[in-house]
Amino acid sequence: MKTRNKNINIPNALSMVRIILIVPFIVYFVTDRIWQAALVLIVSGLSDMLDGLIARRFHQFTELGQMLDPLSDKLTQGAVAVSLAVKQPVLIPLLAIFILKEILMLSAACLLLKKRKRPGGSHWYGKVATILFYISFTIIVALKGIWNIENLAVTVTLLSITAAFMIYAFVQYFKIFMVTLHSDDPQYTIDIHEVMDKKERK
Fold it and tell me: Is this structure's pTM higher than 0.70?
């Protein structure tokens, strides 16, 4: 009897939904339909919280999910950051921090895979950084796009808190990366060929 593909589950589907929502967000934002863009961003943020809760509640953790969840976060954040920075140059410093952080983390993940090591999944500090990202950008967009309010103090405060937590999350992930890279523990190893063979047998 054919074994059910464990990668087909609700958390992975929600991660895919977040990736798909990037398109309508960009379309709404560049056409100045701020309410619609903000609504898409809120739905994306809620799906980000739900997939983790569902995965933990129903034990629906998969190798694909551990890679798909942070990937969808990164793509969404990148799309939002670039879109906002284009219209509001004050956000460029945070965008620069975001891009640097993501390039370094992507490089680290590629290095671990090359060494046949398992890239780590998301952790609470990464999720908090993501939530702060959504909250900060939503408030800034709402103030400017909906009420035409530009409060420099609020903007700087929100961006400073978000940037600080993004840096903190990066430091914590870097510590995990170093432990994984130099550890001989089998829990950190991954056999790509074995994973592919299992998929083929299914």
Answer: no
